[in-house]
Structure formats: C-alpha cells, structure tokens
Automatic annotation (TrEMBL):
Keywords on record: 4Fe-4S, GTP-binding, Iron, Iron-sulfur, Lyase, Metal-binding, Molybdenum cofactor biosynthesis, Nucleotide-binding, S-adenosyl-L-methionine
Record protein name field: GTP 3',8-cyclase
Domain Radical SAM core: 11-229
Family matches, as Gene3D superfamilies: Aldolase class I
Single GO molecular function: cyclic pyranopterin monophosphate synthase activity
Keyword check for Cell cycle: no
Any single biological process term in GO: Mo-molybdopterin cofactor biosynthetic process
The EC number(s) this enzyme carries: 4.1.99.22
C-alpha cells in the first residue's frame, strides 16, 4: 500500500523519514562519557514538552513524511506514563515503525507491553559485560537489571541492538565478549566511536579508537569477518562472523562518514529541533506550540528549516558554539 503522505527531502536531496524523539533529559545512570558524576542541571517540568505536544508534532511530521520514530532520552522510562504515550504514537497515521533506545535499568517490566504494541527494535546501551566495569563506566551498580532486560527482550522476540561506546582504557576487553553474544543469539552488537557530548565541553583532540581501528581489531581476531549489506540510510557498517546468528556493526559517530545518507531528525525533550546531531538546535518547536501557532504554520516552519540543513556534521559543528551539552539533553 502506498504511503498516505509524500516523502520530504532536505536541500541536499536526502529524504527525511526518521525522527528521534527525546521524552526526557533525565537519566538514572551517570556514564562518564555522557555526563559529569554529579549529573547535569535538569530542566523544570514546565520546560519539557508535554506528551500531547509531542503527539501533535509527530502527527504533523508524519504528514510531512516521517515514517519511523525512535523514543530516546535521557532514559525514557524515568518519565511516567511512557507506555501509554508510546501506544498513542504507534496509532498515528503514517507512522510505520516505533522503536526505543534505553539503558535497560527500568525496562524489563515493560517488555510485554512493548511487544504488544509492536515496537520493532530496542537499542540497549551496554558498554561492558563485566559488572565491575559497568559500575566504573556508569557510576551505578545496575548491571543485573540491564541484563534482565536483555534476556526478556530476547524471550519476547523483540529485535535487540546493543550499543557499546568504544573507549580507550575502559572497555576494550569487552569487544570480543560482546561479539561472542552474536554466536548463539540473533542480536546486533554495534560499536560506536566516542563523541564529545559529556556535559563538560571536553572536545577530544584525537580519537584513539576510530571506526577503522575498531574494524582492524575485529578483523585481527575474526579473520573471516564478512561484510553484509547495509540499509540505505544505515549509520552502521555491518559484518558477520560465518556461522554466528547475530551481526556486528561499527558506527563512525565522531568521524561522521554516513552524513551523505542521513534521514534523521531529532527533537529534544525541551522541544528543540535538531537536523544534525552536531548542530545547536535550529528551531524552537516548544515556542511555536505555546504561541498558538496553527498546524499549517508549524509545518511551514518545519519545511523552511529542512531546506536549510547542514551538509554534514562538520558543517553543523562549524556553525555553532563549542560543544558543551550532554548526550542526555540531545536525545541520543
């Protein structure tokens, strides 16, 4: 069946079909690469988008061409009534896929509901399989609850993608154990370059574990590693070890090799529209919503913004002040 609404393109001819929607800036972990140990100043509740405001935006974006929505945070499950909200999103005409990114700490009790509403994939943030290293990285002793979520997702046949940020001196010893999860389980393990969004404004002058080094490390230990076909808009390059059930992905998040096919938008918890992970926010949707703008006025503003999208993450970064925000405030 044909899509009910036309495809929307940016000024570089890239289709815009995928929305990452942050429902909160709060998180119950304190991963050192995402935020300081003391956390970040959280926004007052009134400054966050209300669920009904988010539903309105998703409805309008679906009319413009968005087909896939991923719920992100912060940690989505620290916001109350998330499951009913997701159920309402899944019923919006034009939305064909609803997915979730979570750290897994609070997720396990909700897995049956995620399955029932048809959530397609769950990205589980998990940088290590070692409980002590988990504590060191996240500053919280929550590994057991995260692992329970992982097992429950597999039991309910929900597609799982484990996201692991590769960090020198932190979790290099976890790369091979994570790959070994793909031996007997149909899971994607995605190794991600570290990025500068740690809430302290520390830009990394050099990146030690680039996507190339990650690949070379994997190839050294798995000489028969085979490339498999990627989705046209995939951020990851995917590989398999022959005979293994799952896949391995490498995401060049800092090197930004995938910008030419990026079809993603982000809406932060406070209603900022980002057409690139590295931009500073290009449209204040909360202000539009709360100024009684009509649906047509909002859609006109969105289309105008999409026609002035940065060519890639490097251009977007050049157009902004230095990075100081936490990934928790961006929406992953």
């Amino acid at each position: 069946m044909d899509a009910p609404f036309p495809t929307l393109y940016d000024n570089h001819g890239r289709p815009l079909q995928y929305l990452r929607l942050a429902v909160t800036d709060r998180c119950n972990l304190r991963c050192f690469y995402c935020m300081p140990a003391e956390g970040i100043p959280y926004l007052p509740k009134k400054e966050l988008l209300r669920y009904e405001e988010m539903e309105r935006l998703v409805t309008l974006l679906a009319q413009l061409g968005i087909r896939k929505v991923r719920i992100t945070g912060g940690e989505p499950f620290v916001r109350r009534d998330l499951v009913p909200f997701m159920e309402r999103l899944s019923a919006i005409p034009g939305i064909e896929q609803l997915n979730l990114t979570t750290n897994g700490v609070l997720t396990q009790p909700h897995v049956p509901a995620l399955k029932a509403m048809g959530v397609g994939t769950v990205n589980l943030s998990l940088d290590t399989l070692d409980r002590q290293r988990f504590l060191q990285i996240t500053r919280r002793d929550e590994f057991d609850r995260v692992w329970a979520t992982y097992e429950s997702l597999l039991e309910h046949n929900i597609a799982v993608k484990i996201n692991a940020v590769v960090m020198e001196g932190q979790n290099i010893d976890d790369i091979l154990p994570l790959v070994e999860l793909t031996r007997h389980q149909p899971v994607d393990i995605r190794f991600i370059e570290e990025m500068p969004f740690n809430g302290e404004g520390n830009h990394y002058p050099t990146l030690t574990w680039t996507y190339k080094r990650i690949f070379d490390y994997l190839r050294t230990h798995y000489p028969d590693l085979q490339k498999v076909e990627d989705h046209p808009n995939s951020t990851a390059h995917h590989y398999v070890v022959p005979g293994y059930q799952g896949r391995i992905g490498i995401i060049a998040a800092f090197s930004r090799t995938f910008c030419g096919t990026c079809n993603r938008l982000r809406i932060t918890a406070q209603g900022g529209l980002k057409t690139c992970l590295y931009d500073q926010g290009v449209l204040d949707l909360r202000a539009l919503l709360r100024s009684d703008a009509s649906d047509e006025q909002i859609k006109t503003s969105l289309i105008h913004t999409f026609r002035h999208r940065a060519k890639d993450g490097f251009e977007a970064e050049r157009q902004r002040t230095p990075v100081t925000e936490s990934m928790a405030t961006i929406g992953g």
